[in-house]
Amino acid sequence: MKNKILILITLFSAMLVKAQQDDKDSSTTLSFTKSETLSVADLSFQAIWDDKLSYSDNIGYYGGIAELRVFKNKKHLQTIKNIEDGIALGYINFEMNDYNIDGYLDFTVPISCGRSCNYSYYLYNSKTKKFEYRKEWDYLRIQIMDKEKKQIISQPDGMQDDGKIYQVEGLKLIEIKK
């Protein structure tokens, strides 16, 4: 059993180095700190920032994007409301990448950070031509993306187990192995 785990760790490590390089080349970060418009590829994101979007008893008011207007080739696609600065640092980073391996850019928004960050995923639906928030993707920590097999290896925080392997089918995640 220990040999199998060691072999898996070695294989995952080698794949991780390649995947991180591949993802580094295809990933872009947009950082919103105020009302502004930021762009990547043919997408533009017009954010309306609100310093008092959210309230917490322990930190008081903290901000976020009250309204996000999304444009593709200058055509309005949709408006997303109330994206909180979940870590209350005065900014929200959108990490842009093709997370569901369908050829379209998607984005993540951090929802919590400790030793590492956890994210909410907004995946582009080519049928509706809109980004969809996918709750079942919340807290997914992608370590390796196998684009050929359309699989994701997710490593839990603290590495308390061997992680999970998911098959990506459109906007859905199907757990295939623990």
Strand arrangement across the biggest beta sheet: 1-6-7-8-9
Indicate the proportion of strand residues: over 45%
- Radius of gyration, rounded? 17 Å
The domain tally reads 1
Please count the beta strands (DSSP E, at least 2 residues each).
Answer: 13
Low-confidence stretches: 2-25
What structural class is derived from the secondary structure elements? mainly beta
Distance between the termini: 15 Å
Query: What does the main sheet amount to?
Result: 5 strands, antiparallel
Overall geometry comes to globular
H/E element order: HEEEEEEEEEEEEE
Number of helices: 1
Helix content: 10-25%
What do the pLDDT scores average to? Answer: 84
Keywords: Signal
InterPro entries: XAC2610_dom
Explain this structure to me?
This protein is mainly beta. It has one domain. Helix content is 14%, strand content 53%. It is built from one helix and 13 strands, in the order H-E-E-E-E-E-E-E-E-E-E-E-E-E. The strands form three sheets. The protein has a five-stranded antiparallel β-sheet with strand order 1-6-7-8-9. The protein has a four-stranded antiparallel β-sheet with strand order 2-3-4-5, with no helix packed on it. A four-stranded antiparallel β-sheet has the order 10-11-12-13. The protein is globular. The two termini are 15 Å apart. Residues 2-25 have low confidence and may be disordered.
